[in-house]
Design brief:
Two copies of one chain form a homodimer. Chain A is globular and about 65 Å long. Chain A is of the alpha/beta class. In chain A, the strands form two sheets. Chain A has a six-stranded mixed sheet, sandwiched between helices. In chain A, strands 1-2 form a two-stranded antiparallel ribbon. Chain A is built from 13 helices and eight strands. The first copy, chain A, starts with 11 loop residues before the first strand and ends with a helix. In chain A, a hairpin with a 7-residue loop joins strand 7 and strand 8. Chain A has one domain: 3-Layer(aba) Sandwich (Rossmann fold), CATH 3.40.50. Chains A, B: Keywords: Metal-binding, Transferase, Zinc. Chains A, B: One of its GO terms (cellular component) is cytosolic tRNA wobble base thiouridylase complex.
Chain lengths: 306, 306
């Protein structure tokens, strides 16, 4: 397999694009495409202050590297969830994130769930006696809360996550099985600010997981290779395996699934209930002040209610 | 496992309903539920003339038996597709359908694609050089055309198919991956008449395949056990296998997937373009007179264009 641009030996073949590239051209191509998506979905500009959720894994470090090289103004936020297992998972991840930031003289905000709220994720999950999928959903809830709070406290213009196409397709498949109009109406790569929520963008949403992994490897960025010990057997992993089998059978399935969904959204597939800004402003949690649909104590603060 | 109604030995356990039944109560339950769905979705009444698509398989013969016992006025339509293989598949299926009708003194209309149009389904597929999935799509196109034409010619009030939940869920999953608003907007158990299309109803849409199979077996109805030789490796079968794995892992998945979809439709997902009756009346194929979206020669007639 030869690079389409220079004819040298290709290091990656992207069947869904019928495109093979050598290392040099791949390291050019991925940032170019990222820039294209940022502009296409009108995510953010170089004049804005951005906060990136950094996990220490391949996706978030690849995205930080790309945005930094493209000249965007991005700080990182590492949330130490207190997930240890035999791997000392959270502390190891944090070291990779910190090393990355230090080498590039970038700002990484570190936040420790146990120090901040008195309990780690596994401790909260154990106390509320939730099963494995529930641990993942508690973790998601806590991260979203902290992420939005930190962005508001730091006056960031937008928060960024490194979700890739495999992530987005798996969530979309799960939401399609439930047909939740609320969730299906919010799967865009850009969610505008509103009602106390900071703008959210996912610049890697059109890259396959293997593509961000290839970027990280070719750039020689050290990252945590292990998956979170709680992810084994999770619903999302289950759907990712199905999508991988479909992709194998019908190359491009994941990308078509996601892009056709975005087109369907544009065509009005899931009309959303529109709340007025005044209504939304009233829907704040009395404890933390963050937005909540019910207008009562938010789901995050309820986790810590005695 | 004991029957919930009488405590006798159960012959079927429906995990999604947490309901186990003996043979006697199962043979009562399935028609009661069918009647419930007919009323719930306002499909048709006992005063109307109905045309059922009969394949000679377990679903269509079970449905015909149930509707006949419930006192509905149903004729059958068997379309001989000329699929032979080593099994003489089409002719065998036809014999099962005819035997069923004769034993109950019911009217079965027999129609032979080769006799009517000069070519069988495999011959059309071969001439137009289509692959396996395409053979299934040609077959679907031909059956839909003949079915609608026969219902209009015979002045039937509604056409009925015996699609079960496994069929509907597989089609829905396939359509969800494509996000075709046109197709996703038309997955209801009842499609009203309009623009030259006869009303269409699917009274078995909420039964799992194994439930209609159990009914056919317990009633002792002979039917063709073989699957169509062309179905092996088809896209629909592929998705059915995935849904079966999900169902195994999370009982009730198929039913929730389908019912949540119907709720989403009710809540305004996939709004359909509304054509006026006058517009629709102009969109007729100049060759066969049946409705066609383009207003030019319909897809069925194009199959036979030289």
């Amino acid at each position: 397999m030869r690079c389409r641009k220079c004819g040298q030996k290709a290091v990656i073949n992207m069947r869904q694009h019928r495109l093979a590239l050598c290392d040099e051209h791949y390291l050019e191509w991925l940032p170019e495409q990222t820039e294209r998506f940022i502009k296409k979905y009108e995510m953010f500009t170089r004049y804005e202050r951005l906060l990136l959720a950094v996990s220490g894994g391949k996706d978030s470090l690849a995205l930080w590297d790309v945005l930094w090289r493209l000249g965007y103004n991005v700080d990182g936020l590492y949330i130490n969830l207190g997930i240890d297992g035999s791997l000392d998972y959270s502390n190891q991840s944090q070291r990779f994130a910190q090393q990355f930031a230090d080498e590039r003289n970038l700002k990484l905000i570190n936040l420790n769930v146990h120090e901040q709220y008195g309990e780690s994720i596994p401790e909260i999950a154990q106390r509320t006696r939730r099963g494995q999928d529930k641990t993942c959903s508690i973790c998601g809830l806590v991260k979203r809360h902290i992420f939005n709070q930190s962005a508001r406290d730091g006056n960031y213009d937008a928060v960024i996550t490194a979700h890739n196409l495999d992530d987005e397709a798996a969530v979309l498949l799960s939401n399609s099985l439930d047909w939740s109009l609320e969730r299906l109406g919010r799967g865009q790569p850009l969610l505008p600010a509103g009602g106390g929520f900071v703008r959210k963008a996912k610049p890697f949403c059109r890259f396959y997981e293997r593509e961000s992994a290839a970027y990280t490897l070719l750039r020689g960025i050290p990252y945590i290779h292990e998956e979170c010990p709680y992810s084994t057997g999770s619903k999302q992993l289950f759907f990712k395996q199905d999508l991988n089998r479909w992709e194998e059978h019908m190359p491009g399935t994941k990308l078509r699934f996601y892009l056709n969904y975005l087109t369907a959204l544009d065509e009005g597939a899931f009309p959303q209930r529109q709340e007025s800004p005044a209504e939304l402003d009233q829907q704040r949690c009395p404890i933390c002040g963050q937005p909540t649909i019910t207008g009562n104590t938010c789901a995050f603060c309820r986790l810590f209610e005695k």
